[in-house]
Amino acid sequence: MKIRTVTVNNRRKVFAVRTSKGELVYPFAKAAPRPTDDDPIARVWIDKELASEAFTYALRSGWEATVHIEQVLEYNKDPDYLRDQLLYRLTLEAQKRVAASRLPKREIIRRLRTSATQFYRLMDQTNYRKSVDQLVSLLQILDCDVDLVVRAKSA
Question: CA distances (Å), 32 to each of 17, 73, 153, in order?
């Protein structure tokens, strides 16, 4: 996701990041080095070298740092980003389990009732067009129990 604009809001002590999804904020407190009243932000810009997926800021002292859009999305608990992270982790686990399984891939594909092409798309961690259902089905075929755990965040 590309950043369209980034501005500094010193009153709220946040970076205001505008994307195609709208405006998201990222607090100074999460940035390192952290802007302060003694060392404020001198300049902020969208980093073209990172395909406009990050912004860089410079403090008056000369320190510079870059914040990637993924950090902003994670801070704002973007549901699409969190879903993609869940898919990524489940896919990596499925890859490990398939590699360790004694079942031939053809048998796994037959049990999934899918094609080899679809199976390899399912195993691709960069493919986010798959569903959690498909990955859970694959893990069940590999004799894995998938439990969803919901717990309060630790402070």
Answer: 17, 17, 23
Q: CB atoms < 10 A from the CB of 55, how many?
A: 23
pTM for the predicted model, two decimal places = 0.80
Q: Which residues contact 73 (CB under 8 A, 6 or more apart)?
A: 1, 24, 81
pLDDT single digits (tens) 16-28: 999 998 999 999 9
Q: Where are the domains of the chain?
A: 3-75, 79-141
pLDDT of residue 154: 81
Q: What are the CA-CA distances from residue 118 to residues 2, 31, 93, 103, 138 (Å)?
A: 29, 41, 18, 18, 12
Report residue 153's pLDDT band, with 50, 70 and 90 as the boundaries. confident
How far is residue 120's CA from residue 68's CA, in Å, rounded to a whole number? 29
The values of phi and psi at residue 62, to 5°, are 105, -15
